[in-house]
Amino acid sequence: MKRWLLGTSALAAVGLLAGEAAAADGVKLHIGGRYLAAAGGTIDEQSNIFGFEDRTRDYVFKQDVEVYFLGETTLDNGLTVGARVELEGQTSTDQIDAVFAYFSGGFGEIRFGDTFEALAQLCYTVPSASSIFGADSPLFNFSNAGVNGYSGTNGTCYGIDDKSTKIVYFSPSFGGFQFAASFTPDNTEDTRNTLNGFGTRSKTDAGQLSENLSVAATFTHEFNGIALAVGGAGSFSFDRENNNSPFFDDRREYNVYARVGYAGITFGGAYSFRENVFSFKRDSEVYGVGATYDWSRYSVGFGWSHGRYELNSFSGAEDNSDIYALTGSFQLGPGISIDGLVGFSDYNSDFAAFDYSTVEVGLGTAITF
Known about the structure:
mainly beta; Porin
């Protein structure tokens, strides 16, 4: 009951702030999006699995397309109200990527709907010169390590409930300091009204994470030409529904990061620890560092990330993944870039079930509108 009252009280407070205020021009519709594409592949692919290289193609073409619709207005009292719908530009099982309403003003901002939790909202990855390639959470990668290993890439900004229906609060910035908090009733997107079944949703869906809380804080400041960004976050699930197994437990995730930039050079690192991600209470850990240099319309960078993924929490056996990425980008014009990648992926398993390495190369473009 307390959580329900807190959520409805926040929304009620926004309603009171709005009062009888009106916007002279009404809600205005904006349309935007992104088109990302890349061609790439592998060189000198090696694995301890017999015939693996013969089963994988050496190259691939990829796309990632998204269109958003944004309706927004600012009321006469200064309160900004809007709603955003993000649509996948390719056929997907999750065609509506995100949808939420927001209310912002001097008090900060409140979002309600399908959107990322606080940890993922205020998060910096390992620096990369490219917006689509990198050693940490790249949008495009070409390694085939994910076929038999844990993953083809490493990431430090995952979170525990993706874009489930939630409420998120962002504080105003106080001298560069900002915090955010989010609450998710259960790990389900597209929550809507029903005329039959559970009107308030079932709380006995086997294994589903629910009662999720995420908190994050960041500090950004620029002084004497030096740009600084540091922060961290934690996400906690307080209930794994209908869980009678001693081999599962509630999920938790933590991350920290730091970046410093001066005269076009940026150096930074990121760390993530994820508890009870898999069965038998297995954890994972990812960390990495990187640096970039920007001049004129060019940018180059190098990053490294290491992922440690438990295979057996009792014996200590684990998989380890190292990713090295040399990235570059050239700005053709506002919102248009050509990006490149030369990388090395090395995956090793304690069980010798899957060892893998390859050189990755890629060329792509990012167009935002």
